[in-house]
Amino acid sequence: MTVTTEQDAVLIRVLDSWADAVRRHEPKRVAAYFTEDAIFQGFDRTPVVGRAGVAAYYDKQPVGLTPTYTVLETRAFSDDTFLAFVDVDFTPPNAAVIPVHLTVALVRSEGEWLIRHYHVSKIEA
Looking at the whole model, is its pTM more than 0.90? Predict the structure, then answer.
């Protein structure tokens, strides 16, 4: 992947860490990449707010779930906030790939970039 902007580099760093924690089934580590007040919408009907909700969501995912992603667009709102649109393929063990569109908003707080908003939309065939 060619990094074209500072936001792309930040996003790749955060998403690589997130994906590694998902693969290793480390829900608390996954949640550490989110702000304390993050809004999170996964495949559940109800969104959650905060790291505890994010950790609980990933704790119930299958061990061995593997996300791979492609960054499509980033848009800066300010020096400390940007939005990204990403395609992600979630591959569960022994199951079909689940393709999704992912929208994330990242914020820089005290020098650290964290996900403040996360929303997936399943891509139906």
Answer: yes
